[in-house]
Write a structure and sequence with these properties.
It is built from 3 helices and no strands. The protein is mostly helical and about 70 residues long.
Length: about 70
């Protein structure tokens, strides 16, 4: 158990969630432990910058003939 805790803490303390804004959002230790957050799987750095939606169509002007080129919605 101690090795698991140490390994989880070492990876979480350098995660983007814990280091952003100067460490402002580091969770309360009791909440983190009681919520068993040490078992969370961390996303690789930069993974959150990927698009949230996949498989959307590529929109072209031909799809919207009623809109003149350059018109704002």
């Amino acid at each position: 158990m101690h090795q698991t805790l140490i390994a989880a803490l070492s990876s979480h303390c350098i995660s983007e969630d814990w280091t952003k804004d100067g460490g402002r959002y580091i969770p309360n230790a009791a909440t983190w432990l009681n919520g068993e957050r040490l078992q969370d799987v961390l996303m690789p750095t930069g993974a959150s910058s990927s698009p949230a939606f996949h498989g959307l169509p590529n929109h072209t002007q031909e799809m919207y003939p009623e809109v003149t080129s350059g018109a704002n919605f």
